[in-house]
Amino acid sequence: MDLQRLFTRFALVMLLVAILAGVIASLGYLFPAGFNSILPFHELRPVHASAALFWIITGAACCVGYFSGRQSKPFMALWMITIVVIFINYCFHNYGGREYWEFPAWLNIPLLAAWLLFMAASLKRIPKDAPVYFWMWTSGILFFLITFLEQNLWHIPWFRESFLREVTVQWKANGSMVGAWNQMINGLSVFLLVAISGNPAVAQTKKAWFLFFLGLFNLMFNWGHHVYNVPNNNWMRGVAYAVSMTEWVIILLIIRNFRNTLSEAKKFCHLVVYRFIGAAELWVFANLLLALLMSIPAINRYTHGTHITVAHAMGTTIGINTMLLLAALGYIIDVDTLSDRVRKWLLTAIRINTISLAVFWVALILAGLVKGFLSVDHPENNFADVMAAVRPYLEVFTAAGFGVMIALGIICVIYLKHSNRNRQIN
């Protein structure tokens, strides 16, 4: 089998594992008595988190390698083998590492080796006149390495001597890593705009270059809000939020400009890929609004560490990153040339996902507001009473999660079925 096709399928399987484990984990959280003896929440959470993490990173690397024509077979093979070993360890209850990377720490070594192979293939020759999306991919790949190394600094005893020091570095590294894969995914979105519109100038506009430099600045300095509760200077928090929020505004403007200028004929020709991009636009706007509100200190006092933070993370992961990655993978598979029946299934799944994710997102926000109010303004409440008040919203969130699972499951199954189709990229 072609390794590139296997890599594409592997990324999609990671998405399936993430959504399935996420739904089961939410049931385990709500009904521990029925699940603790079979699939307890504390075991499902690392499976869900790791699968979601590897879906985003693998999907981004898959599309960047394919669109740039700089695939690395050794990278793909070593990366997939290591991830399979990680999940085998989870099956045998063998954990380790730190948050989001809860597998045995030694497995970071083959992951690092694989990424270095990917870098060697991706960065060997950089054309002087390379379009902006190429530089987005390049900076994302480079800074993923930097943040990955930073995330593993806890292996050095000096960092572990101070809990505050280790937590600060961990939270900072994980926050910056999000910026690294955002750079790669943002680059994919610009590439798709160029490919669908047939206008290379889209990747050379001042706005596109501003987005690149702003995204680079973002991943380097916007991590401040990830350590908001750790003692630091207030100016760091202000800069972090300002930079982070401005990046989403620029992405929204670029996509809106694309939508306003694209002809009706081209919209129809690339309808499915276009709908994924349109769905991402909706969630950029929604998460921008939520994040702006969360950046206000008086509001952040109530929202920090509540389900509102989860709502923002899930809206970004599913609504933006996943939609753009599915758009890119759909372009590779050339889903817009599939039969009308299959395309209708995809369009229906996109609508179901958008509606279900909206309910999912609002339920988490309401749960966070209730928890924040009862915890901050009424400290006399014990944790059990607070969670009892939050539970109805979490039940709605779980029910909506089934809709998201069904919608993304339909898309993944269709993509897997037709993953032997690869569009030729010039």
- Provide the helix percentage: over 70%
Mean pLDDT: 85
Distance between the termini: 23 Å
Sketch the major β-sheet: none
Radius of gyration: 21 Å
Structural class of the helices, strands and pairings? mainly alpha
- Low-pLDDT parts are none
Strand % is: under 5%
Q: How many strands in all?
A: 0
| Total number of helices | 16
Q: Please provide the ordered H/E string of secondary-structure elements.
A: HHHHHHHHHHHHHHHH
> Which of globular, elongated, flat, extended, rod-shaped describes the shape?
globular
Keywords: Membrane, Transmembrane, Transmembrane helix
GO biological process, one term: aerobic respiration
Protein name: Cytochrome C oxidase subunit I
InterPro entries: Cyt_c_oxase-like_su1_sf (IPR036927), Cyt_C_Oxase_1 (IPR000883)
Question: Your description of this structure?
Answer:
The chain has 426 residues and is mainly α. The chain has a domain at 1-123. The protein is built from 16 helices and no strands. The longest helix has 37 residues, at 340-376. The protein is globular, with a radius of gyration of 21 Å. The two termini are 23 Å apart. The mean pLDDT is 85.
SSE layout:
Layout: H1 3-30, H2 32-35, H3 41-68, H4 73-91, H5 108-122, H6 132-151, H7 157-160, H8 163-197, H9 206-221, H10 234-261, H11 264-269, H12 271-294, H13 297-303, H14 307-333, H15 340-376, H16 383-417
Helix pairs in contact: 1-3, 1-4, 1-16, 3-8, 3-14, 4-5, 5-6, 6-8, 6-9, 8-9, 8-14, 9-10, 10-12, 12-14, 12-15, 14-15, 15-16
